[in-house]
Amino acid sequence: MIYNNEKIVSVGKGSPLTLSWELVTHCQFKCSYCYFNPYESSTNYSEVMKIVLTKIKNIKEPVEMTLLGGEPTLHPEFHHLIKSLYEMNHVTKIDVITNFQPTVEFWRPLLPYKDKIEIVLSYHVEYSQKNFFKKIEALKNDFNMNIIFLVHNELKYLSKLKEAADKYFELGLETLPITFAKLVDRSSGSAEYFEYQAETLSFLSEQEKRVKRLKYPEVIPVTTEAGTKIEINQMEFSSKNMNRFKGWKCQMNALIIHPDGMVSYPCTNQKKHILFAELGKRNLVCAHEICPCEAYWNFTKTKNS
Ligand code: SF4
Ligand code: SF4
């Protein structure tokens, strides 16, 4: 991996144990590119919640939670669940990845817990997501927020994407980070980006320049062979195809808890019920063509010499 003519030998700065908890199987949308394929299920979410919370309570190290789905805000006890996690001292952060359909009033009861919460708003151009930016305006002083702006590869969506991107930059929220992300195709069982045409790639590179001017752009720390430490803008990292670590050593520190209480160990095919799952770091040698999830780029990775 080369950046500005320098060989990169390590990426990421490590991170606490990250538990991604898929709270429910359903969602208001059915995005064509959704890897989850939402569906209605008969799972007793309250029962699963009790078991998972007990298991998390017994973890002996700091934990960062990421709540997702389906759409996590549709969990029948969403507010109670956030309160329970908040009250665990070792849970240091609670990210909620949401399509931001709930009203402003839905979010306000979470204000007492806001110091641990980050609302990660995902923008899905196939749906109208009415009032998306108005709700951001209404809540911008109350919660930490972050936008994942999914850039569709079909040209018919390009004008709507441009309009939405302009709306975001017009808000002048230079402290609200945004990532313009390409769609990942997981249909073949492995992950690869969908194919993008020149017009959309040009839109992406325009947004990359705009994001670089923000006060706090998301960055990925890397170390060169000469020992120099550099922070690379997350969008540049992706546009230069730097998220490819096949054969590198990776300190993978994330697990996925599914709505039915099963636990997946990402980047391997392992799965266990939460009652029997060990929740902790794993040292892997990366076997994948791309590392598709931005959240995983910060796990420490070193090039095998
Ligand atoms: S909003 Fe998210 S979970 Fe819902 S269908 Fe779209 S990608 Fe899937
Ligand atoms: S795909 Fe998985 S194993 Fe490979 S670098 Fe990313 S997190 Fe690590």
Q: Which of globular, elongated, flat, extended, rod-shaped describes the shape?
A: globular
Strand content: 25-35%
Q: Percentage of helical residues? A: 10-25%
* Class by alpha and beta content: alpha/beta
How would you write the strand order of the largest sheet?
8-7-6-5-4-3-14-15-16
InterPro entries: Aldolase_TIM, Radical_SAM_PqqE_MftC-like, rSAM, rSAM_sf
Keywords: Iron, Iron-sulfur, Metal-binding, S-adenosyl-L-methionine
Cofactor: [4Fe-4S] cluster
Pfam families: Radical_SAM
Written overview of the protein:
The protein is α/β, with parallel strands linked by helices and 305 residues long. It has seven helices and 18 strands. Strands 8-7-6-5-4-3-14-15-16 form a nine-stranded mixed sheet. Strand 15 (262-264) and strand 16 (271-273) form a beta hairpin. Bound molecules: iron/sulfur cluster (2 copies). One iron/sulfur cluster binds next to strand 13.
